[in-house]
Design brief:
Blueprint (H helix, E strand, L loop, with lengths): L1 H11 L1 H32 L8 H12 L7 E8 L2 E10 L2 E11 L21 E8 L5 E9 L7 H74 L3 H27 L8 E3 L1 H18 L3 E5 L7 E3 L1 H19 L6 E11 L2 E10 L29 H11 L3 E7 L3 E9 L5
Parallel strand pairs: 7-9
Antiparallel strand pairs: 1-2, 1-5, 2-3, 4-5, 6-8, 9-10, 10-12, 11-12
Length: 423
């Protein structure tokens, strides 16, 4: 009987139909899983944070695309401004590593990326799959590149999916570029507002300083006359206190005038290393006896700049004394002074940076530290004018005074000055 059923199944093809049905069902399920995985990846590509760095974005893209493609190296090639930058990612010990390399002029018609010097294994890849990135206007803004060191052929379906993924990434990239551009404009607007506020404060400070200077001169002169004729110890002590307070007031007035940039100083060609050396000779011993280690990293062959030696020295002294105050009573107190050249806002500058491992500055205070009379020091330890005066000097030289700080960890003030500055 079993033999008859077997012959009947073979003749009617029932068993064959079942196998074909199950095979077709399996293929359909696999295809659905693949499509579902692709949709999930596309959804994940839209979740890139606009404030993320390009390196972080490239690693995220690599981790997502690796779920649909087999590749050894992923490259996000972007045209930002006039430079093509390649963000290269590869897997090492279960983690995605990345590095960025600028490739120069972006005005080339093809914008194709030469990857021969970029891949980690140092030889030409055996296989490359790439698709362009475009914005909403159809303009090419970059490229997605998958590389393999072994021969591997991608299917037409995989190529089509990478094109779809590139469309999603192109929208994300455009949003990020718009966000960065908007952030830059907002920061510029904030800087302009800050400059206007400081300019107004400077005019007011100059007027107040001039009004106070004349009566204060009379007070100091009369106190000195009284001190010469005083015979009582108590009276002499009170007159001495008045005189010292008067000198403190005169110093504040001088700082106000400097902040308002009313004083004239002779400008000359200066070498920043020589200025730093002179200041350290002046107050180096004072820092040393305070138990602070001072380290210097001065760049060789710094180009000269035009400026006032006296004013630049004043800025450095202010920064070093602030660093001293911030590191007092700190174990392993250290100040580092560094000079060099860099680019700031598209201009070549020389800079001197003063770093300390002191108390640092609270984040909410960073926007206020250049305001006149703002200070975080104890009462009577500072006038609150040192940084505002230094900020005014930097701007009068066409430069900037920048700050980085983390509360309880460090502070770093950088005075950046134009290499070719004409007053």
């Amino acid at each position: 009987m079993d033999r008859k059923e077997e012959i009947l199944e073979k003749l009617t093809g029932i068993q064959s139909s079942r196998l074909s049905y199950y095979a077709e069902l399996t293929r359909a399920m696999e295809e659905m899983k693949k499509k579902s995985n692709q949709l999930r990846i596309l959804n994940q590509l839209t979740k890139i944070h606009v404030n993320e760095s390009w390196e972080g974005i490239s690693r995220y893209l690599a981790s997502q695309l690796r779920q649909a493609f087999d590749f050894d190296v992923f490259i996000l090639s972007l045209c930002d401004a006039s430079v093509v930058a390649n963000h290269i990612c590869w897997m090492e010990n279960g983690q995605w590593l990345s590095r960025t390399q600028a490739m120069g002029d972006a005005s080339r018609a093809d914008m194709s990326t030469d990857v021969s010097d970029l891949i980690p294994w140092g030889r030409e890849p055996q296989n490359r799959l790439s698709v362009p990135l475009q914005n909403q206007l159809g303009q090419r803004v970059g490229e997605l590149i998958l590389l393999n060191h072994a021969a591997l052929q991608y299917s037409e379906e995989e190529f089509s999916f990478l094109q779809v993924a590139a469309d999603y990434v192109g929208v994300v990239i455009e949003n990020i570029l718009l966000f960065k551009d908007l952030s830059k404009k907002v920061n510029l607007e904030a800087q302009l507002i800050q400059s206007a506020k400081l300019a107004a404060l400077g005019e007011m400070a100059a007027g107040v300083a001039h009004e106070l200077n004349s009566p204060l001169t009379a007070i100091l002169g009369n106190v000195q006359l009284l001190m010469r004729g005083s015979s009582g110890e108590a009276a002499a002590q009170m007159l001495e206190d008045i005189y010292r307070c008067g000198l403190r007031c005169r110093k504040i007035i001088q700082n106000l005038l400097t902040f308002a940039r009313q004083d004239e100083y002779a400008w000359e060609s200066l070498n920043l290393n020589e200025v730093v050396g002179g200041v350290l000779e002046l107050i180096g011993y004072q820092l040393q006896v305070s138990g602070i280690t001072v380290q210097t990293r001065l760049s060789d062959d710094l180009p000269p700049f035009q400026g006032s030696r006296q004013q630049i020295e004043q800025v450095l002294i202010n920064l070093l004394l602030n660093a001293r105050d911030a590191t007092l009573h700190r174990e392993g107190a250290r100040i580092e002074v560094e000079t060099g050249t860099t680019e700031l806002d598209g201009m070549e500058v020389v800079y001197v940076a003063v770093w300390d491992n002191g108390t640092g500055i609270k984040e909410e205070h960073l926007s206020q530290i250049f305001h006149p009379f703002f200070t975080t020091k104890e009462r009577f330890r500072g006038t609150g004018l040192g940084l505002s005066v230094s900020h005014g000097i930097a701007e009068s030289h066409g430069g900037k005074l920048l700050v980085e700080s983390e509360e309880g960890v460090f502070s770093r003030f950088t005075l950046a000055l134009l290499r070719q500055n004409v007053r």
